[in-house]
Amino acid sequence: MSRVYEVMFIVRPDAAEEDVDKLIAGFATTVTNGGGTVKSTEKMGRRKLAYLVRKFNDGNYILLTIEADGATVHELERRLRVSEPVIKFITVRMDEEEKRLAKIKAIRASRRKLSAEPAAAAPVAAPAAPAAPAAEPAETAPASA
């Protein structure tokens, strides 16, 4: 079963641009040979890392969006793990993320709908004229006994 994944990996900052391109092409080939497709490739550029990773303060971020089965993703992760220029990577299953976001949107829409219903009902009830006050019954004097 094919699912959508985002694979982000960080390449050493001293890696040459053509080496990074070859690396990306190699990972894309791994995905296509496994029966998957690469939907998009985004080079996010060089960024500072939050903490030292393999003695590096910064790295080149690359984001791959792929559609593949679990075995292909497992093979891609294995190749990322043994690849020398890759210092860190993460894989996220996006169809689960999309389901979660759709659920949040549905909850927000239902809350908006519920909050809009009383506001819509209130103006309808407000213009109604108040009923005339009913005549009060006459008080009866207590009987003396």
From TrEMBL:
Similarity remark: Belongs to the bacterial ribosomal protein bS6 family.
Record bears the keyword Ribonucleoprotein: yes
Alphabetical list of InterPro entries matching this protein: Ribosomal_bS6, Ribosomal_bS6_sf, Ribosomal_S6_plastid/chlpt, Transl_elong_EF1B/ribsomal_bS6
Protein name as annotated: Small ribosomal subunit protein bS6
Functional summary from the UniProt entry: Binds together with bS18 to 16S ribosomal RNA.
Disordered: annotated segments: 118-145
Organism whose genome encodes this protein: Occallatibacter riparius
Swiss-Prot/TrEMBL keywords: Ribonucleoprotein, Ribosomal protein, RNA-binding, rRNA-binding
